[in-house]
Amino acid sequence: MMIRSKGKGKISLVKLTVKCLIVVSLLATFTGLSFGAERPAQFPERIILNLTADPAHSMAVTWRTNDINTKTVARILPANAAVKLVPAEPNIVGVSEVINPKNDSVAIRCHSVVFKNLQPNTFYNYQVGDGNVWSEWSQFKTASDKSEPFSFLFFGDPQNQLVEYVSRVFRQAYRAVPTAAFGIITGDLVTDPRNDDEWRDFYYAAGWIPREMPFVMVPGNHEYYDGADYRTVTPLWRPQFTLPENGLRQLAETSYFVDYQGLRLVCLNGNIYMEEQAVWLDSLLSTTSADWIVLAFHQPLYNTGTTDRDNEKARKLYEPIFAKYQVDLVLQGHDHVYGRSYPIVNGKIAEKGVKGTVYVVSVSGPKSYAMNSKFTDKFVKMGTGQQLYQVIKVCPKELDYRCYTTAGELYDSFTLEK
Ligand SMILES: [Fe+2]
Ligand SMILES: [Fe+2]
């Protein structure tokens, strides 16, 4: 087969294909592995479970399709070994909304369902679709309604080269603890949140893991980048996730809390409404009798990466509250390095016998920044140039934290005791 090339006569399609492949591979070298534009299908894709505010009795699932079929349904039943799964209950009808991230003729319909009235500590099978075309059956487990031991995974910024480098971190973490109750990502899931191709890469990197292991995530500064400013969360955030809405009304699905088997996990939005969140947090923590309080947000209070960073405003706002309620652990990202502090109370390393807050900064993606030496005296461990994941085991009397490299080697660890 031949085609005509202007001014050069005929060239073979094979030669042209080879040239195109060279150009594509050169581009991949500079931009990282990625795929071409993805058109949504009728088949459910990008399925992700999110924890709700009541994970012992409910679970949220979100997915997307093309906009041809507008129906949103899911079905669920307690997991069993039958070859044919036939739910006793009728299909659950969910909600959907249409987004058009590329601003072209390809509309995407994002669907969500919240499974309610579930039994605690129980495996369920579920399926999503339009009532005609269905996803595969997947399964998840609800939380216990008591303080019982469990583990969860923590990831700092994935953000860059998601397909090429981040996929192995998610896979290694899952390989290490496939029974982890959930995963948390502390922001900067992608670099340009308006670019649906980057979200596609995120879902490729995570694979089927979020279909069975629920995730919670907070927005980083990158999820707030709209091309000019950082004032509004990307329009792709809320349609893609179904996160709790039990925080400030103006920060629905970006600032919220979850109680999970003795842990109160509070996810804050580090971008906007900082003062309002401080008031809310003070009130929220005054009511909890949880064994452990863990905070998660994007921008660290004590920067360990990038020399010119210093989050003094957040320190002034939040540290007195952390000290007042003896917050145990703070999980953060943003700095693209690793750091784990000594227990700190109001800016000082806690004296022996005094309870302090441990601050952790981590990163799961390949982008690394230079170390920031401003707070070196407050940190037990600092490092850069590693992609990391963390396994946090929560027991009623003990919290065991372990940080690993992508090779599964232990990078840092500590234990907190009640
Ligand atoms: Fe960031
Ligand atoms: Fe980042």
Description:
It is a single chain. By secondary structure, this protein is of the alpha+beta class. It has 2 domains: 45-141, Sandwich (Immunoglobulin-like); 150-417, Metallo-dependent phosphatases (Purple Acid Phosphatase, chain A, domain 2). The protein is built from 7 helices and 25 strands. It has helices spanning 13-31, 162-176, 196-206, 209-212, 237-240, 274-285, 312-324, and strands at residues 2-5, 9-12, 45-50, 59-66, 73-78, 92-93, 95-99, 108-115, 123-129, 138-141, 150-155, 183-185, 215-217, 256-260, 263-267, 292-296, 329-332, 338-341, 344-345, 348-349, 358-361, 379-383, 388-394, 398-405, 410-417. The strands form 6 sheets. The chain has a 7-stranded mixed beta sheet, with no helix packed on it. It has a 6-stranded mixed beta sheet with strand order 13-12-11-23-24-25. Strands 3-4-8-7 form a 4-stranded antiparallel beta sheet. A hairpin with an 8-residue loop joins β3 (45-50) and β4 (59-66). α2 (162-176) packs parallel to α3 and α6 (274-285) runs parallel beside α7 (312-324). The N and C termini lie far apart (74 Å). The model is unreliable at 1-14 and 16-31 (pLDDT under 50). The protein binds fe (ii) ion (FE2) (2 copies). Residues 188, 220-222, 298, 334 line the site of one fe (ii) ion (FE2).
